[in-house]
Structures are given as C-alpha cells and as structure tokens.
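Help!! Second protein's tokens look totally different from the first
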Amino acid sequence: MTAPAIHLWRLLTWGRTLARHGALSGIERDPNTPAAVRRLCRIARFGARVPTTPAYATALQEIGPAAIKFGQTLATRPDIVGDAAAKDLLRLQDALPPVPFAIIEKAMAASFGRPLAELYRSIDPVPVGAASIAQVHRAVTLEGRDVAVKVLRPGVEEEFARAIETYQWAAAQLESMGGELARLQPRLVIETFKRWTARELDLRREAASASELAEGMVAEPDFTIPQIDWARTTGRVMTLEWVNGIKLSNREALVAAGHNPARLAHVLVHAFLRQAIAEGFFHADLHQGNLFALPGDRLAAIDFGIMGRIDRRARVWLAEILYGLITGNYRRVAEIHFEAGYVPPHHNVAEFATALRAVGEPMRGMAVKDMSVGNMLDGLFNITRDFDMKTQPHLLLLQKTMVMVEGVATGLDPDINMWETAAPFVREWIRTELGPEAYVADRLVTDLRTLARLPDLIRNIERRYPKPGGAPPAPPLKDIEPVRIGGGWRYAMVAVVAGAASAAATWALLH
C-alpha cells in the first residue's frame, strides 16, 4: 500500500502544474471549499505566475495521460468543477506524441504471440491517431481487407494504476470533510473513472462494447458500427473494419461530397435516442472526431472506450422526465424525482415542481431553434443543492453525451432542435413501455416470477429488496483512512510539504 506521504507528494506536484495554469483559482474562490483545501491550493501556487484565464485542459495534458482521462470525466461534472471549467475540459483532444513504431510492433507481436506477418499483409508505421491510452495504425489483412489497428501504449496500465490509487486516496480525504464535498461523492466519481479506464485498458472489452452496440442499432440502418476482427484482437490490440468516411468536423468536405448535413443531424439524434432510451446502452463519446459520414447520408461511429448503461426502470423515469419537461408537466417530473429517490423524501414535491418550472418555462417562450437541451439540463443541476440531491454518475454521463450530441447536431444543422426531434421518439417509447398492453405483460411476468421465488422472498426480503432508487447500486469503495490534523507527525508532514513547495517555487523562479 502506498504511503500517504507519497500521495501527498504526487498531489503537490500535480497541484503545482495546475496552479501554473490557473486551474486552482476557482477552488480557492469557491465558498464551499473547505479551509484546509484552500490552504493546500495556496501552498501549491506559492511563487507561481498564475494566468488570468485558467487553462484546465492544458494543465491536465501537461500532467499526463491519466490526468487527461480524468479531465474527460470531470467534463461531465459541471456541478463539481463549474460550467466554465467543464466547457474548457471538453476541448481535451487526447493528442500525444506517438510511440515509435518499432516499440509498437514489438508490443503487438508479444500480444499475439506470433509474428505480425502471419496476421497482416502490411501496417502503416505512421499512426492515424495517437491518444493518451492507445494509438491507431492503418493496416491490410492477409485477406486484403483494410482495417484499423488500435494498440495500447506500453506501460500505460501501470501509470494509470498509480494515478488512480492517489485519486482514490485524495477523494477519501475530501469526502471525510463532509458538507458539500460529501454530497458530491468524490469517491464515487473516482470509482466511475476507474471503471471507464478499466474498459479502455482492456481492448477486448472495448471490442465487446462495439459488438453489443452494433446489435442494438440494427433498427437504425443509417447508423453503423465497424465490424470487429476478433481473430486479430487481444487485450492490448484491437482490429476493426476501416471506416472510409468524412469526419463530421469537416463540414466543407461534407457539403462538397454532396452530403445533406440536416439529414446527418437527424440520423445522429435518432441513433443516440435509441441507444440511450430504447436500448439503455449508449456511446458516451459522440464528438465530431468519432463520427464519420458515409455515402447515402449514413453515419459511422468509432472509439468505444467510454460507454454508458441505464437499466429499464431508470430509462422509463428518464423518458418521463424528458417528456414532462417538453410538455410542461412539471408536477409529474417532480413526482418522478421523488419516486426514483433522486430527491430525499423530507422535501416537498410541490416546491420542487415550482423550482423545475422556473427552469423550464423561460425556454418554452423561445423560438424552436433557440431552445437548448444543454441549457435545460444545466438549469436542473443548479437546483440540486437546494434539494439535497446526490449526484447520479450514470445520468451525468448521459447529460454530458446529450449536450455533446446536441452540439454536433446543431453544427450540422443550426435549425435543428433536440426537443422537437426527440418528442415523437420519446412519446412513442413511453406509449410502448407504459401503455396498457405493456402494463399487462409486465404484470404477468412479474407476478409469475414472484410466485416462483416466494420461499426465497419470505426468507430474504430485507436483504434482496432494499428500498428502490433511480440509480444503480454504488460499487464497493476502497477503505482509506482519512489523514486528520491532530498528531505531531502530521504537523511535521505539513511543514515538510510547505518546505518542498517553497523549494519548488525557488527553483522555478531561478530557472
């Protein structure tokens, strides 16, 4: 187990980098920040030239790959880092210098356990993309098929393991301070980040996600997923079909190729809604660089490292919430939040409905093209503190993706509106899932299953059926002892940290 002093040193080093880019200013100014955290921020920036405008993304890119991925996680948490920081973090491009091909080639051969000549006819040594976790090369199989080969960077697993261990330790210290920090559940944030990276650090899991998503998108033929080449996929190498398309970020090329941007936007929105609401399994990184336009105004997605999952009960609640906001039925939206357990029962349903109305009504008077799902969801986050709502990571990931999809769609078609496009889909899904036929079928299945399990239900009712909530059960969190000021050695540690900070500041000034 890593000693607290090592965690402190890592945090001080990272904090120094963040301070030089002004990324700690918001934490220092926030009245909800505990005094102990503000003191550490001041120590970290001692002697640094702090810019007026914070550059959060730049700071995390400088710290390293794990910090880049963590920044992408924080981009989904405007309730923690603030709107300005979340927007800046969205520009993390995950771009790093590529690993030399000789090293990549050796790593691939070791992963397959045989020479690459037995698998590929050729591999382009120049990568088409290099990110924090992996890089991608274009190749041709022995059968003559064009493929993309994604290879993990050597040593990336060890680097992430060290960083996540320190993140867990720091989150435990913050949560132990109680108050607003406990409500934001930083330990659960880190656990969510750990699960994301676990999928990305095992390319077989990413390949499985792509395969599962492809099965769920059969009903959307205009939205395609590249086929996985399982014979050439391992935990460290993934081979998949090469996508011959135009990135959605290149609008001029799309128009020149004869694509209809409005049609592409419509396909994207419908595909996302089917993933999130109908299937409950969605691509959570649908930015312009991961989407390609294909002939016939079809779309293809790549990069399946970050995926979101929502169970059926939460999807029903989500659909009702969206439809209630679309139609102005704020009372029903408020009731759903209480039924799902998002709002503690000691609050008043009517008061919460009024708060929701304050967010929704101003938008109902806007022109259709001026309304924004992103703005609506940002408004909802602003009332969470007043009603003691604990953060729900699965819904925050969905919110981040929805805002991202809306941004890509409006970039293609400025007149599109997510509300208008989503309403028919959501209305039909609610009718199918909550209509009388669905109710009778669900009731029959539920009753039969209950009768079959009656003996176990009687013996284990309390253990097996806790009070239902809208969020999936939280994963077990690692036991970490908080460091509390009180013992002499702890004062000595603070002195050592302060001395190290002063030495670092002096070195920075002299160099």
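Here's the second one for comparison:
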Amino acid sequence: MYLDLFKLHDLPFRLSPDPQYLYLSRNHSRAKAYMESTIWFTDGFVVITGEIGSGKTTLIETFLRELEQDVVVAQVNQTQVSALEFLQSVLVQFGFQPFKMRKAELLATLNQFLIEQYAAGRKVLLIVDEAQNLSLRVLEEIRLLSGVETSREKVLRIILAGQPELNDKLDSRELVQLAQRIRLRFHLTALSQDDTQHYILHRLEVAGAAGREIFATDTFPEIYRYTGGTPRLVNTLCDTAMMGAYAADREAVTREDVLRAVEELHWTEYASRTHRELRSMVPGAGARALEQTGSRRSDVILAHVTLSMEGKPISEMPLRLGRVIIGRTSDNDIQIDSRFVSRHHCQIITTAENCVIEDLNSTNGMAVRGKRVRRHVLADGDVVVLGQHSLSYHDGRVARAAKQGESHQPAAP
C-alpha cells in the first residue's frame, strides 16, 4: 500500500467507523450532544437521521467509547427482524440466552433486568442503528419498552439512528404515540466545502501526516464537487486518488490524480445526480441501489464471488467495475451476519485488469490458502476465509480469454 510513500502509520481514509478519525463539524457536534443528553434525560426518544455515509455510525461509536462505567448498553444493528427476534437481540446484548423464551417471558425478563439495573444505580441505554428498516410492529414494541418506569422516572433510554426514511415512518399515522414520545430529532447534513477540506486534513493528521502537504490545495474544490461533502464518498475518492499518486510514485496527490480517480469510479458531479444515483455512489449501498435504478457503472460482469458457510453456498454476487463492501451490517453490498465478521470487514476493488480484496482493519482478518492477508490480488478459484464464512472467486475474464484463444487456433488441415 501507499503508507511508506506518504510516510503515514495508518490508512487515513478507511471506511470502517473508527472514533479516533471522527471530525466534529458543527452539525456532528450537535448530534453528539443530543445523544449525550439521553444519559441525563429519560423522558423520550432521541432520533438521529442522515444519508448513507454521513457519519452516523462513527458518531455512535465515539459516543459509546466516552460513556461512563455505570451505563449499560444494548446496541442493535440487525434491524430486518420480527418483534420477537428484536426482543431476543436486545436480551442477547444484555448477556442473556433468550432463544427458547416465548414473548411473555422475554418481556418479563427484560422488565426485571431494567428494574434491577435501576436499583443498582446503573443507567440502561438502547441504541438502534439502521432503524429505518424496523417494521411498524417492532417500532411499536420499542415504544412499549420505553414505558418501563419507576415511581420517579423512565428506566430505559433510547436512541434511534437511521436514514431519512426513518422520519417518514415515525410520522406515519400508525405511530402517533411513538412520535409524541420523541424528545429530540436531528438530521445530519453533508459537510460544507470548508469542512470537507478540514475533514481531509484531520484524517491525514491522525494517520501521521505531521503537517506535510499530501493533497495539493487545488484538489479540495474538486473533491467537494464530486462528493458533495458526504464523508464516506470523500474517503472513497481520497483513497482512490492516493492509490493513483502511489502508482505514479508521487509523494503528493495532484488535481489530476483526483480527476483520474473520479473517472475510474465512473462518477459525475454530485449536484447533477438524482437522489437514487447519489446513494449508488456510496460504498456499501452501491450494489442494491444500482440494481434498483438500472444505472450501473458498467454493465459488464467481470467476475463473481460466491458466499458460503461451512461449505454450503448461500449467495452469489457479480463483480463490475468499482467497489463492493463486505461486512456484518445491512449497509454493506455483501452482508454476513456473523459475530466473527466486523461491521465493515473488507472490500473488493474491481478494475478492467483484476480484482483486489483489502482488509478494512477488521478484528479477525481474512485468510487465503491458510495465510492471513491484508491485501490480495484475486486469482480465479481463490477462496477467502472470513471466520465461519468463505468467499469463492471466479474470474470471468479467464474463461473469455480461453475462448478467444481457442477461436484464434488455426483450423486443422
């Protein structure tokens, strides 16, 4: 990678939500303050919304890291579940094994736990990320949970975080009672042009830039023009531009590197894109959004990966030009619901020449042929092991090249 060339000790534009890289713009600071208020005020929900890649998850991770020891937290990220499964997920977070319990037993166990924690002087916090995927029934269940109280105050503090569709659900007629319980609601907007520049410089400093100019001054307006200040898009573009500078053996990223990266990513100016197209630009949302809109970066399928668990195939995904993010949460292109897989575990970058898989600073890493790797150029037939799951890589270019070779063989006399 480019760390040695740029004299950095860490990758500055990883997509994983690392709290030490959090840049607190005015909006992010306000959203964090709203989250912190849940510890002191128990009367109602706090709702934080924002587009994909706006920094919600990183904000949550930072908030959690700074909590006092007397706060007990349940963090639920898997939200495409039934009401029963949701209650089980919450109890698992609190250390229970609730999978054989019926609903009445689940509720009784949870109520008893909340009262015990209150009596012991501890605060209990429930954070639901990707809450826009919750069904109306599950949201109503959460409202009922919030009603657990002593004679003085509510016992359970609740933060709901999600994409803007969450607001539409909360404002629906079926959830009037829940909407009345919302104490604070805040929407995270994208960074301004100045904040985008400061965001980039902040991440470079954390990674070890020590004041050195790694991005030329004229790169920042171009980066903002194509990302609109969406943090995850900024990360993607900056990382790709640094790879371009690395390939050219330059110690600073130029405007030309940024524009070449834009071309490689097949992006147009941010302001010219529709709402759905904007979502398709964000790593981790690309595959699903592109399938829905039909607006693909390239219609040519260059390779496939097959996801398996203990040797049994689960799903297959085509690889086109661009990136595919793999991880535990639902905002990934390939979701692997396993405790051995990190939130954003790894990514596959597909170019016209090859496919490269890169670790995104995951906890358990990945292995190819029994050896742990951080970056690996995939060859046809490679199997990448991710905990209990594996990804089998099949390169369509190999088969096409073989066919072309056969077609060019001279005819037999």
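Reply: Different proteins will give different token patterns, so don't panic. Residues 2 and 243 are 7 Å apart (CA to CA).
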